[in-house]
Every structure is written in structure tokens, then in C-alpha cells.
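Weekly sync notes, structure subgroup
Attendees: PM, AL, DS (notes)

Item 1: joint prediction request from the bench team. They want all three components modeled as one assembly rather than separately. Inputs as received:
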Amino acid sequence: MDRSNLVEVRNLNAAYGQSNVLFDINLAIKPNERVAIVGRNGAGKTTLLKCMASLLTPTNGSVVFDGKELVGKRSYEVARMGLKYIDQDKHVFLDLTVRENLELSSYATGDYDWDKVFKHFPKLKILIDRKGAFLSGGERQMLMIGRAILGDPKVLLIDEPTEGLAPSIVDDLVTTFHELSKDCAILTVGQNLSFVSRVAERIYAMKEGKLVAEITDEAEIKNNSYSHYL
Amino acid sequence: MIQMNGQLVISAIVLGLSMSGVYFLLTVGLSLCYGLMRMISLDQFFYYALGAYLVYTITAATGSFWLGALGAMLVTLVVAFAVERLIIKRVYSKPVMFSMILTFGVNLMGVGLIKYIWGLTPKPVASPIGGSVNILGTSVPGYRVFVIFLAVVVYLAVQYFLNKTILGTAIRAGIDDAEKVEALGINISRLFTVTFILSSVLSALAGVIHAPFVMVSPEMGMSITAFAFMVVIIGGLGSIKGTMVSALIVGQVVSLGALIWAPLAEMAPFLVMIIILLIKPTGLYGSKLMTR
Amino acid sequence: MKRFLSSWTLIFVVFILLYLMKGILPAAFLTEVVIFSIYAMGCSFLIGCLGLTSFGQPAFLAFGAYGAGVYLYYFGTNSYMAILVGILVSLLLNMLVGTFLVRLSSSYFTLCNQAFCVVTFFMFQKALVKWTFGDNGLLLISRMEPTPVIDLTSPSGIYLFSFIVAILVWLFFNYLMKKSVFGATCLCVKNNEQKLRFLGYKTFNIKWLAFVIANTVAGLAGALYTVYFCMVNANIANVIGAADVVAISMLGGAGTLFGPLVGSFLFIGLKDIVSRFISHWEVLVGFLLIVVMLAGEKGIVGSLEAYLEKRKNKKSQLQPALTKEGGL
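Output from the run, pasted for the record:
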């Protein structure tokens, strides 16, 4: 194991019933790094993230975070260790207010310093008493990330962050990602190549359950020339 | 047809309200368990009967109904905790039908144990509050009024718990999306345990307060099952307010129906249920979101 | 060898063997096992093939039982006719009741069935007591006359007849569950009803038909019970009995062909033995249900079938649907 890696995924395989979805995935994330995985629908990106966060159980392989093996742990244990998963469905708890959403996260992590959340998302302070059901897509995304950063996680796994969001919100998200990565590493997954090119320092291309390429060259990232791998 | 005079009607309404109280206490547990754990916990009827039997025994031994009530709830708490840890927790991720049959089995086993420990003869439990209260010119048993009062207090307490405490907030969130609650870092199986125990204690309380109305018998769980189901079906599984409204409806239908034609008491809720389900097959409030 | 062991022949083999055990096991026990297994077959079909659990089966048993009983008490003396009447009454009532119950989603279906059974029990016990005599019931011994061909009033007659009926029921269900398109459609309903509806199937009709079939078979069992016991009383509709039939279905294996028979045999046997030591059989039934569900809900025959299926697959070296190169 390369000690400089914060997260290492080794030979990860996963299946839904008889249907294999992930094949021998190997990847690494360094502290404060912004990494992206891009691939088409059905390539297995969400499955990979969920396996890393212990929301799904892989058939074999290992996920090592901060020197500790994650496979076999419950997802709440993984979250408390500092690896948080943010789902693409933008589902904040509908009956709970923004305040209650944050309270839940504070209760789980013991971190009641909400200022760091409002520093990134000042709008949440205004919406503090609004119920989840009445938030817009962009506001929900803010809340999902906001409540995840309580507890000072070291890694955020963010699934399809730009899905269904207006372009101006996406622009804000780019800034947010850069700001967030000062405190933690971000692994994001998606199909929005333009967003990825503005955010990622390193990109994995994923096709049909396998990682087919790793792009580290800045120029290649910027001009999306890796898209042929997909 | 019985002559409907004002006093009879008021008496029936009060009776209906007190029955609603019992129904509510019994079904709020069912509703919570379904909302959070997606399981239909049929063993709640066992805890109901257990509560009634325990209050009988403890009251007989100590002479105090209140001590009996407290003891009944505490013992049921322990029993429910054991059942949840040993049996129920293994099936949380399974489909609803699975937990239904399983908890049906627990209920059955429980009834068998009750028969073994206490025998088959029905036991009487004296009403802890005697005397009557005058409501709108009608003399109504004081105990019935107390039951109504208690049910209201419990309803308010449950609402407070769900809306103003962090545990209650976590439960509400879990009803919405249990996986996400766990992903936030909360130990969801502890939440399940707490919810299950809370439901069971409330069911036991239902048994405790119902005991003075009826003879405590091994079949009492079975007898009340149909009514509890009707409350749950009319009100929809997963809504506290729906459960309360529905309990009120069923209680009144039973008591006022009995005034008109005695057998109607047994049949009426069933008829109401059929009518409502014909119009809306998921019940009046049938949604999986726990509303206030 | 394979043709010999086809399910059709197996049905005959199993029942004939069982019939011949009259010397070893008491005939009364075997008759009860067979009749109960017919009752359980309907329940097992509903649970296993449609995913509809009913805690109200005694109501449907009672329809057939009372149909036959009322006929024998008030109208005629021929047991064959009684059984026919029982089946018809059961059929008509099931068709009616089905239209209400089947439209419900599975959990509500289960709850409503139980509530319906409670109401039915109440009807037979109290509301209709003028005709049914409630708990005392209708005593029919004096009202039944010997029947031609097979005398249903004699123990050996009803014994033989039950076996014949069972064989017919089993042949019917073998066709229904394994060979018919209807059976396959039912499994689809169990698996993903919404998808089936999108494909254009009227799932309500499918469920309704399956409901009517299963519960009329239960009614047939009820009619047989009446003729066998020469009486019928309200207790047959008691919702407590729902536990027995569900337990048997799950124990044997819901949706399997021989599950109901295996379950019935074991359950009634166990109950007979255990009730000599413990007076409250509910503990046993409940315990069995818990054990079966915790062990994976397949039941005895179900687990056996799954095991055999696994061995068959290993033998033929089935290639995985996806190769490593092709991916998804």
C-alpha cells in the first residue's frame, strides 16, 4: 500500500445477483485531491461509490481508507470514520427542515459548528426553517453537501452532482468543489464532462464496469480528449 | 331499533372516544414500525395481551392498578427488547410479507405462553377509577373519561417526541429514507430497536387500559385485531395523524353503530373499511411519509 | 427413468403409497392429512405463486363446509351432492368477495383477509345462528345416507374418496403451476406486478382468478371436512385456524407442488404427538413459523428443490451471462 494514498481500492468486484457489474477496480485518492470518474449510464459508477461507502457489499476486493479496511463495515461506521457518500437523487429528508437535517448530521458526528456549512452555502442560513420538500434542486444539493461536511470528513464521494441543475448553479458548484478540497478529498462521478474538466485534477474513465484509463495530464483534462475511452 | 335519546347518544360518543383511545395506542405502534422498518409487526397484539395480563397479576399482588400499569409496561419493554434482538432484527431487509408471517408466529407463540402461564379462564381487572362524571347531563363512568384523557396525552407526547427531539427527528428521517440516515453516520439498527420498543410499550399500555373494560383472556389479542387493522387500513400505514383520525372514526362507528343494532358493532368498521378501500385502495392517508 | 419420475407419475406414486399406509398409520390421521393438504394447497398457491398471504383462509374453508352442511341438514341426504353444493357455494362467494379483496395491495390484502375472516366467524357463530346453530353446529350423521359407488358415510369410503380428490387436485395444480401460461403469469405478478401491467396484462383479473381458484379448492376441502366429520360448527371459521394453514404452507414450502402434503403430514403428526405433552399447541405453531421464516422461508420441499436446482446447474457448467470482455 502506498502510504501517501488516503483511499485505496484494490481488485474490487461487485455483482447484482448473477449479474457482474464491477470488474477488478483499482484506484487511489490522495488527500485533498479532486478526482473524477466519468462514464456512460450503467457503467457502474454509482455501484463503485456505494461499495466504497459500504452501502453495497462487493463480492471481493478491498477498500482501504486511512489505513483501515472498509469492506465489511456498516455504512454509518464508515461515515463516522470520515468518508461520506452523497447520493445523486438529491433526496434530503422531505419532512425535515434544513435545521433538522443539519441537526441530524451534528448528532451523528458530534460537530455542531454550522458556520463552516454556511461559509460554503450562505443561502442555507436563510432557508434554515424551510422543509426539505420545498427546496429547489440546487438548494437540496447544497444541503446534501452541507450536512456531509459536518464532522470534518476526509473524503467526499459525490455522485452526479450536476444532474438536473441549472448552469448558474453548476458554476457555483465548481467554486464550491475547489473550496471544499482545501479541507478534504473529493471523488466525484458523472457524465458531465465540462463540469469535470473544470474541477478534476485526475480523471478515471470507466466503461462497462472497468476502469479503462487514467488521465493526469492537465491539457487532456481540459479539452476532454479522453472521451473516446468511453 | 333502540330509541335514540340524548343521554344514550352522549354515552355512546364517550364510549366511542375511549375505544378510540385504546385503538390509537395499539395502532400507533403498528404505524411506526411500518413507517420506519417497513414491517408489519403483528406481535404488537401479543404485547397488548401481555400488558393486560401483567396489570392483572401485579394489581392482584400489590393492590395498586398504577403499579400494575407501570410494571406491565416495564416487563413488556424487556420482552420486546429480547424479541427484537433475537428474532426481528434478522429480517429488517426482507419484504413486508416475510415480517408479517414471522411476527404472526411470535404472536402465536406468545398467546400459547400466556395460556400456559395464566390458563384459559378470563380474568377480571377492576377499574382503578370509580365514580362518574357528568357530561352534558349524562352520567359517564369516570374511568372512560380518564382513558380519553390519557390517549390525548400520549398522542401529544408522541408528536412531541417525533418533532422536538433528535431521536424523533432521526426516526422521521428514517421513515423517509433509512439508508440515508445510516449514510449520515447514525446507527440505524439502534433506531429500529428504540422504535420497536416504544411501539411495544404503547401496545402494552393499550392492553393495560383496556383491561378494565373487557375480561382479560388469551383471545383478546385476536378479538381486537380486526378493529386495529381497520384503523390502520382506513388511516393508512405510516401517518400518526391518520392513525388518530382513523381511530376516532372506528371508535365512533362501533359505539354509535351498536346503539342502532347491536351486531353492527362488530360489522360496522368492516363495512366502512370496504367503502373506503373501494374509493381509495391505500386508505385515507396512505402515504409512506410520516406527517405531523 | 426420467419419464417415470415425471411429476404426473410422481403424484400417483406418492398418493398411492400414502393410501397404502393405512395399516401402519391410523386411517383417521391420514384422512385428515389429505383433506388438510388440499386446503393448504390453495393457501400455498396464493402465497408462493402470487405473493398474497391470507390470514383469513378459515373463512373460505367455512364457505364450502357450510355449503355442504346446510345442504345435508335442510335439503338432501346425498353426500356427493353436498360436496358439489359446497363447491358451488364457495365458488360463488369467492367470486364476489374476490372483487373486493383482490384490488388491495399485498399488505392490506393480508390484513383485510383476516378482518374478513373475523366477520365471517361472527356471522356463522352469532348472526346466522338461527340456521347454523353457532358453536353447537349442525349434526349430520342422521341426515346422511350411504352413497353409491363409494360410500362416503363409511370411514374407508371417505378415506378412498379423499385420496381420489387429492390426486385430481394435485394433477390440476401441477398443470396450473408448472405447465400453464396462467401459472407463469401468476409468478410474474408476484415478481413485479407493475411491469406486467405496463406490458398490457390485466393483473386484477389474473389475481382474481387465482384467488377464486385457490379459495374454491379450500371450499372443496371444507365440504370434505363436513362429510368426513358428519358435522359443521362455527369453529371451522375461527381465525385462529389461519395460523395452522399458513404454517403448513410455509413449512412445506409455499408454491411447491408437494409442499402442502409434506407440511400437512408433518404438522398434523407433530400436533398429535406434541398435544399429548403440551396442551397449548400455539407455542409449537408459532415456534415453527419463526424457525421456518428465519431459515429462509423456503420450507422443506422448497429448500430441497433449491438444492437440487443448484446441483443441476453446477453439473451443466452454466456460462455466466456476461463474459469479462463484454461487460454489460
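Discussion: The beta strands of chain B are 132-135, 138-141.
Action: AL to compare against the crosslinking data before next sync.
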